[in-house]
Amino acid sequence: MSASIGNAILSKAMNVEKSTRYVIFGAGAIGAAIGGLLNRAGSRVVCVARPAVAEALGRGIVLEEHGEETMVTCDAVTTVAQLAREDGDVALITTKSQASQEAVRELSEAYDETLPVVCLQNGVRNEEIAAHRFKTVYAGLVFFSAVQLEPSLITMPQGRTVAIGCYPKGLDDRALDICADLKRAGLEVLPSAYVMSMKWGKLIANLNNATTTITGYWLERAMTDPEMRRLMLEVREEGLRVSDAAGIAVEPPAGEPSAIRIREMTEKLKQPLKPAGPGNEVDQVEKERTYSSMWQDLYLGRKQNEAEFLNGEIIALGRKVGIPTPYNSILLETVNRMFAEGLRPGLYGPKELHALIRSRSDQFV
Residue 321: enclosing H or E segment and its boundaries? Predict the structure, then answer.
């Protein structure tokens, strides 16, 4: 982050007189955590959430982070129709990608096209969907994990980083205002003109949400299992081959700050595991458990999943550029079957899943 941008955020963060109200649509683990932290820091917030989460936000939700607990609350409703519209409202959409169309539709019924919308979501098509209805859309990268297996407890095992920028590219004063409020709430904030490139990088990382859901692994366990690391590497490299062939930037230009460097992260999967010791992957495997949002959805018995907007994106691009995508195709097929049949995480172990993909690779040549 440049010094000038950092100073702009700091000066804005010092102004506690807030006219903006944040309407967080789809407040699950990420949205409720961000909403609660914003409210705790003095921003005006109302969340639109499932009834159980809305009720929990009213009572108080515990955020647990590395053994420390913070209680957060904020106003919450269950539909946009229950809101009293205000001129200073800014919408933060935190739903899964499969719910974006409905989220944008509901917001557009309550607001006109001037509502500023921030897409704090995985995937790379949400901003495009929002831009069909709203004039001012911001790309938001959430680069931290939140696990919510019961409404009143959210664990945050990894990071607090958020990046915000204009869609499709650029920065403006409102983006800096939003960054200032998020910074004041305790998040690590990166304002950037290249957030969509970062979101493509995160999409490549998130291709393995399906891998961990199918195997039942949490991230720390996956990173300490040699077979799982090999499988995750193949999935990522397939995604990078396709995105590179399509000419898509998965990182900001050299010299620009970035919350995620997917090529560096992928290279690390090739490195041998370090012996057990303080602070390395093996030591952390039982101390922290980071479950992907897809794993959580399957575990909680939900019927829809985000794989079509992650693995499906790579499959569709692969068809366009003539590159086969056996890894992502079989991951998508398998995870969709698990959701349709109501199965639990852990259908296959990593060796079984890898063998299945290899046995069917010829179908995708």
Answer: helix 311-321
Say if CB 240 and CB 321 are below 8 A apart: no
CATH of the domain at 146: 3.40.50.720
3-state helix, strand, coil in the chain (%, to 5): 50, 15, 35
- Do 123 and 267 meet the contact criterion of CB atoms below 8 Å apart? no
Q: What is the total count of domains within the chain?
A: 2
- Where in the sequence is the domain holding 151, given as residue range(s)? 3-193
18 with 158, same domain: the answer is: yes
d(CA 188, CA 68): 18
Tens digit of each residue's pLDDT, the chain (365 residues):
555 555 445 444 444 345 899 999 999 999 999 999 999 999 999 999 999 999 999 999 999 998 899 999 999 999 999 999 999 999 999 999 999 999 999 999 999 999 999 999 999 999 999 999 999 999 999 999 999 999 999 999 988 999 999 999 999 999 999 999 999 999 999 999 999 999 999 999 999 999 999 999 999 999 999 999 999 999 999 999 999 999 999 999 999 999 999 999 999 999 988 776 555 555 555 567 999 999 999 999 999 999 999 999 999 999 999 999 999 999 999 999 999 999 999 999 999 999 999 999 999 87
d(CA 124, CA 311): 12
Would you list the DSSP string of 261-310?
Answer: -HHHHHHHTTSPPPPS-TTSHHHHTTT-----HHHHHHHTT-S--SGGGT
Contact call for residues 132 and 105 (beta carbons, < 8 A)? no
Domain co-membership, 109 together with 130: yes
Residues 204, 180 share a domain? no
